[in-house]
Amino acid sequence: MCPGVTFLGITYYYWGYILAFAACFAFNLLWYRKKYGFRLLPAALMTALIIPFGYGLIILLSLVHHGGINWVRAVLFIPLAVYLICLILRTNYARTFDFLTPIACINHGVSHYFCVFQGCCYGYAASGTFSVWNQDQNARLFPIQLVEATSILLVGLAIVLYSRHKRYDTHGICYFIHMMAFGATRFVYEFFRDDTPVRWQLSQFQYYCIAEFLIGCA
Question: Where do the structural domains in the chain lie, given as residue ranges?
Answer without folding.
Answer: 5-217
